[in-house]
UniProtKB/TrEMBL annotation:
Taxonomic lineage of the native organism: Bacteria, Bacillati, Bacillota, Bacilli, Bacillales
Signal peptide: none
Pfam family, one: NTP_transferase
InterPro entries: Man6P_isomerase-2_C, Mannose-6P_isomerase_type2, NTP_transferase_dom, Nucleotide-diphossugar_trans, RmlC-like_jellyroll, RmlC_Cupin_sf
Molecular functions (GO terms): mannose-1-phosphate guanylyltransferase (GTP) activity
Gene (UniProt): algA_1
Protein name, entry field: Alginate biosynthesis protein AlgA
All copies of domain Mannose-6-phosphate isomerase type II C-terminal, residue ranges: 338-440
GO terms of biological process kind: GDP-mannose biosynthetic process; polysaccharide metabolic process
């Protein structure tokens, strides 16, 4: 059995810490067994290791999350990257083709799909293994895992089974998405299960659908034709058309940490970052990524969350509504983690004349480097405030250190590799300061160094 972890979404219900570049699964607000801060994806990946499933798992994600995944899980994790976001059906189809044509999986191999961020114990992943046997035994198109409800929640989707078939799995009758609490009570009386987003299929079930649509079943071919895949959910394209679906009940611990209310229930302490909570305050939390302290007095059952993207003060019961208020904010992420380190936006200004100025503080880890890149709409000035490294501009290498100021004109190929931990203040000036103005020639330092030393021909932009 192979597993595919789906990593997507912006997680705006956990604004201001989560954004388009740093979804909720990457927030380091949970504690591991040693008391270290870990993210949801780090916690899940460790559980996969403990249940001997990590070597059989890959992550399907968008390009914007690749750096974050490799930073948190290491460079060896297998990642399938969407060339563009097109919902869950295209992402799952691409992962299936990757397993078939790149990893060489047989067409009768069972593939399990699950979110990258469930909050569960290890028994959950052992139960995921049972999907393979149940799918083969039943001959169904799809096998889902459903969580036995502990209360009539209106936040989750429900799987409603037919009458018991005497097997250890249930045959699915229909689905109900986010019913009222009264409806949920009635569904639970019918042995309904929470839909936790875990399901499995035989690889040929998806490959055959791609063949029927006239789409490639080799990975490179599907990447080139990815835009032809329907921009729809897996539920719409596959689940609703399946002839037989079974569900495997799971009675262990499961929680979706998708809101501040549920997340703070599992955090190791009431304060993360700089902050003070007054005496006699109950069930309140501070999560602070800023360098200024937060003081919380006299308010019970609230969350104060602060990041470079904004500040949230909310009653916990109202925290589920955050997304509807911040969806319209837009704008660039003010903080991102990358494979080389992280950056924080200090200031952004767009002048009436049309030119823009963006100031960033960057931290580059020792031994890491930027991609070899070029911009056509902006120039940059770097001031090195900490550390030393090797700077490259137009194939020329030079040593740089604390106090150096570097000017990078328009259309100049450039990169930097940190010899020690480095911090840089970067000032961008140009007509349009956007991510799409980064044209990457090379990523690996060995290749960049080879170009600069003339061992291979330089890449032309």
């Amino acid at each position: 059995m192979r597993l595919v972890l789906l990593s997507g979404g912006s997680g705006k219900r956990l604004w201001p810490l989560s954004n388009d570049a740093r979804s909720k699964q990457f927030l380091k607000v949970l504690n591991d067994q040693q008391g270290n801060k870990v993210s949801m994806v780090q916690r899940v990946w460790q559980q996969l290791r403990e249940t001997n499933l990590a070597d059989h798992s890959i992550i399907a994600t968008s390009y914007s999350q690749v750096d974050m995944i490799k930073t948190q899980l290491g460079p060896s994790v297998h990642i399938v990257t969407e060339p563009e976001r097109r919902d869950t059906f295209p992402a799952i189809a691409l992962a299936a083709v990757y397993l078939f044509s790149v990893k060489g999986c047989r067409l009768d191999e069972v593939v399990g799909m699950l979110p990258v961020d469930p909050y569960v114990d290890n028994a959950f992943f052992n139960r995921v293994r049972d999907l393979e046997e149940s799918l083969k035994k039943s001959g169904a198109d799809l096998a889902l895992m459903g969580v036995k409800p502990t209360y009539p929640s209106a936040k989750y989707g429900y799987i409603i089974p037919k009458a018991s078939n005497g097997e250890d799995y249930l045959t699915v009758d229909y689905f109900k998405e986010k019913p009222s609490e009264a409806e949920a009570e009635s569904l639970i009386a019918e042995n309904a299960l929470w839909n936790c987003g875990v399901f499995a299929f035989r690889l040929d079930y998806i490959i055959d659908q791609l063949i029927e649509r006239g789409l490639p079943t080799d990975y490179e071919g599907l990447l080139e034709n990815y835009h032809l895949l329907p921009k729809n959910s897996f539920d719409y394209e596959v689940v609703e058309k399946a002839k037989q679906i079974i569900s495997l009940p799971y009675e262990g611990y499961w929680k979706d940490l998708g809101t501040w209310n549920t997340l703070t229930e599992e955090m190791g302490g009431s304060i993360t970052g700089k902050g003070v909570i007054g005496k006699n305050v109950t069930n309140s939390h501070i999560v602070n990524e800023l360098d200024v302290p937060i003081t919380l007095l006299g308010l019970d059952n609230v969350v104060v969350a602060a990041s470079p993207d904004g500040i949230l003060v909310t009653d916990k019961d109202a925290s589920t509504k955050v997304k509807e208020y911040v969806d319209g904010f837009g704008g660039r992420p003010m903080y991102e983690e990358r494979r080389w380190g992280w950056y924080r936006v200090l200031e952004y200004t767009k002048y009436p004349e049309g030119n823009e100025v963006l100031i960033k503080r960057l931290s580059v880890h020792a031994g890491k480097n930027f991609s070899y890149q070029v911009h056509y709409k902006r120039s940059e000035v770097w001031t090195i405030v900490k550390g030393e490294g090797v700077f490259v501009i137009n194939d020329q290498l030079s040593h740089v250190r604390t106090g150096d100021v570097i000017h990078i004109p328009l259309a100049a190929k450039h990169t930097l590799r940190a010899t020690t931990e480095m911090e840089i203040i970067e000032v961008q000036t140009g007509s349009e300061l956007i991510e799409e103005d980064i044209f990457r020639a090379l990523n690996e330092w060995e290749e960049i160094e080879a170009v600069c030393k003339g061992r291979v021909s330089a890449i032309q932009q």
